[in-house]
Amino acid sequence: MLLIYCPYCEEERSELEFRQAGDAHIARPRNMTEMSDADFEAFFFLRDNVKGLTFERWRHLNGCGRFFNAARDTVSDKFLTTYKAGLPRPDISALRPAASSPVGTAPVETYEATEADAK
Amino acid sequence: MSGANRIPGAGRLTPAKTARFFFDGKSYAALEGDTVASALLANGVHLVGRSFKYHRPRGIVSAGAEEPNALIGVERDAARKQPNVRATVQDVFDGMKVVSQNRWPSLAFDVGAVNNLLAPFFAAGFYYKTFMWPKQAWKHVYEPQIRAAAGLGVSPTEDDTDHYSSRYAHCDVLVIGAGLAGLSAALAAAKTGARVIICDEQPEVGGALHYDKSVTIDGLDGFTWAQATAANLKRMTNVKVLPRTTAFGYYAQNFVGLNERVTEHLAKPDKKLPRERLWQVRAKRVIIATGAIERHMVFANNDRPGIMLASAARTFLNHFGVTVGKKIGVYTANDSAYEAAFDLKRAGVTIAAIVDSREKPGEGVLAEARALGIEVLTGHGVVNTSGNLRVSSMSVARNGGGAARSIAIDALLMSAGWTPSVHMFSQSRGKVAYDTETQRFLPGAYAQDCLSVGACNGTNDLQATIEESLAAGELTARASGYSASEKLELQGHNAFNWTGGMAGAAEGAGPDTTVKAFIDFQNDVCAKDIRLAVREGMHSIEHIKRFTTNGMATDQGKLSNIHGLAIAAETLGREIPKVGLTTFRAPYTPVTFGTLINHSRGELFDPTRKTPMHALEEAQGAVFEDVGQWKRAWYYARAGEDMHQAVNRECKTVRDVAGMFDASTLGKIEVVGPDAAQFLNLIYTNSWDTLKPGRCRYGIMLREDGFVYDDGVVGRLADDRFHVTTTTGGAARVMNHMEDYLQTEFPHLDVWLTSATEQWAVIAIQGPKAREIIAPLVDGIDLSNEAFPHMSVREGKICGVPTRLFRMSFTGELGFEVNVPADFGPAVWEAIRAQAEPLGACAYGTETMHVLRAEKGYIIVGQDTDGTVTPDDASLGWAVGKKKPDFVGIRGLRRPDLVADGRKQLVGLLTKDPKVVLEEGAQIVADPNQTVPMTMIGHVTSAYWSENCGRSIALALVAGGKARIGETLYVPMPDRTIAVEVSDMVFFDKEGGRLHV
C-alpha cells in the first residue's frame, strides 16, 4: 500500500484514501466543436501507458476531495513528487533523489536503472 | 519419559510438563514446547506423510518454516480442521488430533504408491503432453480425475468458527527476525529511543541459537543471551516484541504484513482471543535479519524418512532434547554438518560416518571429528540409500566411481550449505546479485529504505554479524532522528567458522543418470526432471519452473530453488546468474484466508446502507433487494401473495388510486453558486439558463465520448441553487465526475457541490389520488395544477417539518416527491400512510416502479443503456441543447460512428403472444431460419408483465430500431423462438395526459 503526499492537506496519507484518475496534463480543448476527428481521438482515446516516469492525476477522495497531479515511476511505484492541479509539469531531473536508504548507497530503482542493468 | 528418543539432560524443555496428542488415532506423549515434529521424533516416528505425485513415504526434513515434507492435518473440531500444517512449526498441545495426508487406506500401506512404480510414465511435463487427446476428454475425464488425485490435505467443509483480528502499526524500525542479528539490531535501535517492532516466526527468539550451542555472547550461552535480550527489549516502552509472528509480505514503501499466531498453540484458547492477528506495519526503516536456510544434498533416494538436514537434527537435540536416531550417518559438502555430529556424539549417539564430498573439509572440524573418534570419508559420496518406511543404510563410494560400501544407519543428516533468505529483500523489489566466490545470491541494489544484516546478507563471521547488526540498528534509528548516547558493544564467540557448500546434483546423480535424486520434495521433482525440461527446450528458469513444478509447492522452493537453478545452469552450459532466479513473492509462508479476510465476513463484508424508513417498510412486509450497497424495498407481499401477485396489485393500485414509494436512495447533489447554471450547462446536454426558479427539468449527462452517463431531474430552487438528482447507483461517480470537471477543467466557475443523498428522506406519492393524500399534511404550498404544475419544486412544510416538494413522476401519473430532512422520514412516511391507506392506496417497491416506468418508456441508465448509447439512440435527442457552444460530450456526439445509420436504438417490443414475457438480455434476430451463428441485431433490455396493459411489454436495443417499428423480429430461446413486433417505447397513456391533472 502506497503512501501519498496530498499537496492540499500537506500530509502523507495511506493509498486507501486516494483514487487514481488517469493521465495528467491533458487539457480539455476550448474549441471542442472545431476539432478534427484525429485531434479528438488523440485527446480522448490515445494514452502512452508509460513504463517508467509518468504524470498522473489522483484524487484525495476520502480526505479533502481535491484532484492533484503526481509524478510516479510505474516500475518502482515510487512517487517523485505530487503537486496541485493546474501547476505545470515539474522539472523531474531536479527531483530524482540520490538515495533514500539509510546506508546512503542504495540507488532508487527506476525503469532507466533497470534497463541499464539489463543492457 | 515423553518418548524413547528423549535424551535426559539434553534440550530446553521441562520434563515434568507433559502433554498427550494423537497421530492418526494413536496416542503419544510429548512435552510442553514440543513441535509436532519433535514430539513424533521423540517417539521414534519418522514416517509422517506421502509425497504428492509418487506417494513415496516421507519424513521430517527440517526443524523450521522451510519444511517441504512433513505436512499434517490438525483437527480441533469439525469446523476447525487445518490442512497442510508444517509439523515443524506447529506446537503440540494437550489432546491435539493430528492426521497424516495423501495416503489411503493408511500411511504405512498406501495404494497410491503404485505411482512410484509407474514413475517412468510420470516424467516432468507429463500432464502437458498426455491429456491432449481426445479434446472432449479433458473436461469430462482428465480434469476431474486429476483434480481428485491432486492436493495434499482436505479442507474443512464447515464455516470457520474462529475469529481473527487486524491491526495497523507504525514504527521507526521494524526488525524481521529475532536471531542474533535481529536482536542486536533491535537492541541498538531501541537504545536510541526509536520506536521498534521486532518479530520472529518461532515461539521464542533466538533463531539459529536454537541449535548452535557453541555460541556465547558476552560470556553467556547464546540462547540464554537471546532470551535475556528479548526480556530487556520487552521492558522498554518504545519496543514491541512479537514472537510467533511471521513477516509474510513486503509491500511498497516499507509496508510489511505480519501474521501473529495467537492461539494456535493452545489446547483451550480463550474464546475472546483471535486465532491469528494481522499486523499491517508501516515502518520508516526495516532491518531484514531473516538468516539462512540449509540446503539438502541431491543424491539417489535422498527422500527416505530419517534423512534430514543436519541443522534440523541439531535443533531436535539441543532444543527439544530428542535424538533423531541411534546410529546416524552424515553426508555433507559443508562444515556445519560436522557440528551436528559432534553434538550428537557428545550426547552418546553413534555416528556411523561423516561422508564429505569435498577432499578438503575445514581443518578445525576435521581435527575435532578425529578427536571424537568419528570416521570421516572425504572425497566420498552417498550414492544410494535403502529402507522402505525409514532409511536403513547408505551406500558410500569414492567420488568418480569405485565399489560402494553399505553402512547401516537409522538416520542420515545432510548439508549442502546455506542459502541466504533474501525473500523479504527481494519482495521489497531489491535486486539480488550473485556472488560467484560463495555461490550465493545476496542483496544487491536496494529499492526501499531497508537493510539486510547477518546470514541473509551473506555475513558468515559471528562477530562481523554482531557488529553489522548493531551498526544497522543505530544507523536506521539515526535516520529516523534518534541518536545513541553510548556505543553498544557485544562480544561473540563460536567454535568453528564454516566453509564449503555446493549447489546441484551430488555424486551419482549427475548428468546421464536416471536415479531419483529429489530437489523439490513436496512436488516430487528430481534432478533428472530439470535436465529433461532443458532438453525439451525450456531455457528460461521461469519456464523450467513451470514445466517441472520445481519450487511451486507450498514451501515455494526454499530448499530446492538453488539446486534446480544449478542443475539447469549446468545442463544449459551457462553460468548461474545468466540463467536467472525466479521471483520471490508473498507470502513467505502460507497465510490462512481467515487472517487475510479478517473482519470482512458476513455483515461486515461490505457496508449496508438502509434508508430512514427501512424498519417501517420491513414491518409492512417489504422484501428487500440489493442495489449497490443499498437495501431497497422490492415489493410488499401481503398474506398469500407471491411476488408476481404483489407486483400486479401494486401496479394496478398506483394507476387506479395511488401508491407511496421510498425514493431516498436517489443520489442528490446540491449545486450552489453564482455560476451554478453555467456549470450545469457544461455538465448536462440540456440548457439550464431558461429554467426558472421553482421549475424542474429532466437532464442527461454524457461522458466526453458522447455516451449517456447518467440522468435525473434537476430542480432550480433559486437563481444560484439547484437540487440535482442522480440514479441510485450513479450517485458517487456522478459526484466525482462533477468535481473532476469543476476542479480541473472549469476551475474559474464559482460553484460549490455538496452531496446531500443521505440528508434527505424522499417519499414519492404517485397516482390519481396523490394530491388528495398529501394535501391535508402540506403547509404553505398551493398544490393546484395551475399553481404547481408538473415538473415544479416548492419549499414549504409537511407535517410541520421543512420540505422540498417536487411535482414530478417516474410512473406517468400525477406525482409528488416529498423531500424531508432524513430524521423526519419515518414520521412523515407514517403520516402519509395514514392518509393513503383509507383511500385504498398502498406502498410499492422497486419492482413495481420498474414496471410502471417501462409502461411509460422511461429508461433506466445502466439497464436500458450500456455505455454505448447516445441520447438519440434512446429517443432523448430532444434533451440535447442544439445551440449550446459547449458541454461535456458535445464533440463525442459528432464522431462519425455516433451519427452513422444503423445504430442500435431503443424501441419497444410487443410479443405476438401477449402472455409471453421475454427474458432480459435475450438476443434478437431478423430471420429465425438463418444458419447458426445467427446475425444478432440487438437485445432485450427490459421485459415485464404489465397488469395495466394486460400483456407483456419490453424495451430493446435494436440496430436501426426506429425504422423497424411495425416489423416482426424474433427472439430465439433454447426451447422456442418468440416472435415480436417492434413498437414505440410508450405502452400506456401515450398522450401523457395523466401527468398533468
Index terms:
heterodimer, A: 119 residues, alpha+beta, four-stranded antiparallel beta sheet, two-stranded antiparallel ribbon, 13% helix, 28% strand, disordered C terminus, B: 997 residues, Ubiquitin-like (UB roll), FAD/NAD(P)-binding domain, seven-stranded mixed beta sheet, 24 helices, elongated
Description of the structure:
The complex is a heterodimer of chains A (119) and B (997). With 119 residues, chain A is of the alpha+beta class. Chain A has one domain: Folate-binding fold (2-Layer Sandwich), CATH 3.30.2270.10. In chain A, 13% of the residues lie in helices and 28% in strands. A four-stranded antiparallel beta sheet of chain A has the order 3-4-5-6, with no helix packed on it. A two-stranded antiparallel ribbon of chain A has the order 1-2. The longest helix of chain A has 8 residues. Chain B has 997 residues and is of the alpha+beta class. Among the domains of chain B are: 112 residues, Ubiquitin-like (UB roll) (Roll), CATH 3.10.20; 202 residues, FAD/NAD(P)-binding domain (3-Layer(bba) Sandwich); 192 residues, Gyrase A, domain 2, CATH 3.30.1360.120; 96 residues, Beta Barrel (Elongation Factor Tu (Ef-tu), domain 3). Chain B has 24 helices and 51 strands. In chain B, the strands form 13 sheets. In chain B, strands 8, 9, 12, 13, 14, 15 and 28 form a seven-stranded mixed beta sheet that branches. In chain B, strands 41-42-43-44-40-34-45 form a seven-stranded mixed beta sheet. In chain B, strand 5 and strand 6 form a beta hairpin. In chain B, helix 12 packs across helix 14. Classes of the chains: A alpha+beta (119), B alpha+beta (997). At the A-B interface, helix 1 of A face strand 15, helix 11 and helix 20 of B.
